[in-house]
Amino acid sequence: xxxNAFTLIELLVVIAIIAILAAIxxxxxxxxxxxxxxxxxxxxxxxxxxxxxIYLADNxxxxxxxxxxxxxxxxxxxxxxxxxxxxxxxxxxxxNWNMYxxxxxxTGGLAPTNWDDRPGGGNNLGFGGGGSASFTPGTGLQDQxxxxxxxxxxxxxxxxxxxxxxxxxxxxxxxxxxxxSVASVAGTILITDFSDYPNAVSGTGPGGTTNKSHRPTDAYxxxxxGTIPYDTSNTNNFPIYAVSxxxxxxxxxxxxxxxxxxxxxxxxxYANSGRYxxxxxxxxxxxxxxxxxxxxxxxxxxxxxxxxxYNQGGAEVLCAATGLPVVAK
Length: 329
Description:
This protein is of the alpha+beta class. Helix content is 21%, strand content 14%.
């Protein structure tokens, strides 16, 4: 009997077809997987927005600070007195801490500055204190903060501790912002993605090289070129300019190699340049969540970072190109 078998040419044709199909389908599968992760991240932000909405209802429509210190008047290393972070303030309103971790975050979520590594201390509430942020020192203190976090807040609406009064740089009573004072709550970013580069967020200080995952971001600068950082730790910040898209590209490009803390850059360096194919997820000031474009958010005629420095008495924010006030989206 004559046996039927594939010839070498037929086998090569089949292999070639499989290779072509793989080349076509693998990118499709990768895109589908990325889209699913983006959907999951958006769901997380919707949950954060819901928690924020309930918090606002309980607190006269006033946003919590980005963070404050356990002992705001400590003589040095206030970080080591404990951080009370915006995510920790929302703790009673959330069901689990995993919603603060983006599935696309290369760091797995940044750990707090202070995490309890004592025997029986909980190892950062079971989330660990090392990982990609292994320079984070363990302490006997647990910050009131999500144990892993992929998101940061907008300093214009959730300010950091302020200073610059009477020679005290940090530790003054800090301003809080009412939602009713914001011109466009639907068009102003409240929370968005952290940078994927821990060095761009973290820094050195009296406590050594530590995680600074409590740091808020903003899209302001003290010069039109977008090179001098705006910082609510100093109340004498004038004039205030919106960081332009051109300046933002340079800031984002510096994230990978920025020295710890990126202190010489505007605080936009703490935000992500676009975690989901050039886009981020964001919670807005009215607590809805959506996908946003970090560069388009800097348009002077549809500015999404606060048309005024609400954390600083509503000071005007100027367009770098024209010198005129920006317009809220």
